[in-house]
Amino acid sequence: MEIPFLAQPDQLEAKIAEWQALAEARLRMDYVTSYSGHRVYGLSVSDFRSSTEGRRAHYFAQPHAHEPGATAGMMDVLEQLLTGRDLYGEPTPLDVERVLAKTVLTFNPIGNPQGRAAAPVPFWDGSRYTNDQFWCWMRGDDSDHPGHMWRRLDEWDRRVERAPEPVGIVYEQIDEYRYVEPNRSQLSAYFRLFHQLDARYHYDCWLDLHQTEFVHSPHTCEILLPIAGLASGSIAEVNHKWGQRIVDAWIRAGFRALPQPVPLGYTGEQAEYFRRNWGALHQRMNIISTEIKNNAPDAPPQFQMRAQVIAIQESIKRLLED
């Protein structure tokens, strides 16, 4: 059976048209347009026949073009919520009518469609590119050190930086000269879309979906909490409990999950990017991140997609219990 791994912008837009025709009362579509002309979509699911006031509002998103398993997982859960079946045609384990009545769930399946459209493969499974080659696709090949990835910057300008050609797919172009990494700059379409929709729905939870390579690690998935000190008190407690719930579900599924959630380990410049862009949000709402193994033979696309699906499903089920 063909893998229903939907992660490209054209696949998303085809599905949106299909879902709108099938489930108009359950789906609201918003978008912002990036400098490249791509639409960055926010797809909100609820029972919109009545007021959504008082419902738990949860945001799901992924900012990185080189992490398509996150998109595929969101597409599968959206299919479940809007049709009652997953992309394989199997019945959803979610109580869809109860979910629709009690929550508003917004999904940003492709935070950087410009980068995703430039990717050379639909998914990364280690069969074609080594990690060094993959990383050069991610951030660009450093012309001063061929075969090694270029720098990781929050925002940069072609008039200042000696940029790689082609530009790494992690970056979103925001004007003629400037580029950003979406989850490290408020100038990105990824953040602009969130703020637009947050003004309407006032989200209290955000699951950010990511992938990494887990080099020299026995694990294939983990939950990351905010950098130590960014979340505190009851928010930090709920983050940990929520993250542990996902970890436990992964372990039940037979995945090699890191046994407990851990804080994001960035220091220095990268940590400062997160403090600047996420600090206020971490003090206001519950936010955690998935990391699912990417670009490796022991992480086939079916696994990448399934691990994200489990994390999203557990996050939704939690809302019905609180």
Secondary structure: elements and pairs:
Blueprint lengths: L8 H14 L4 E7 L5 E7 L10 E6 L6 H16 L12 H7 E6 L4 H5 L13 H9 L15 E3 L14 E2 L4 E3 L8 H13 L3 E8 L8 E5 L7 H20 L9 E2 L4 H17 L1 E8 L7 H21 L1
Parallel strand pairs: 3-4, 3-8, 8-11, 9-10
Antiparallel strand pairs: 1-2, 2-4, 5-7, 6-7, 9-11
Helix pairs in contact: 2-9, 7-9
Description:
- Strands 1-2-4-3-8-11-9-10 form an 8-stranded mixed β-sheet, with helices on both faces.
- The chain has a single domain, classed as Aminopeptidase, CATH 3.40.630.10.
- Helix 2 crosses helix 9.
- The protein starts with 8 loop residues before the first helix and ends with a helix.
- It is of the alpha/beta class.
- Helices cover 38% and strands 18% of the residues.
Taken together, the total number of domains comes to 1
Report the uncertain regions. Answer: none
Quote the average pLDDT.
Answer: 97
Terminus-to-terminus distance:
38 Å
Q: Structural class of the secondary elements?
A: alpha/beta
Cα-atom radius of gyration: 19 Å
What descriptors fit this protein?
322 residues; alpha/beta; Aminopeptidase; 8-stranded mixed sheet; 3-stranded antiparallel sheet
Q: Could you provide a short overview of the structure?
A:
The chain is built from 9 helices and 11 strands. The protein is an alpha/beta fold.
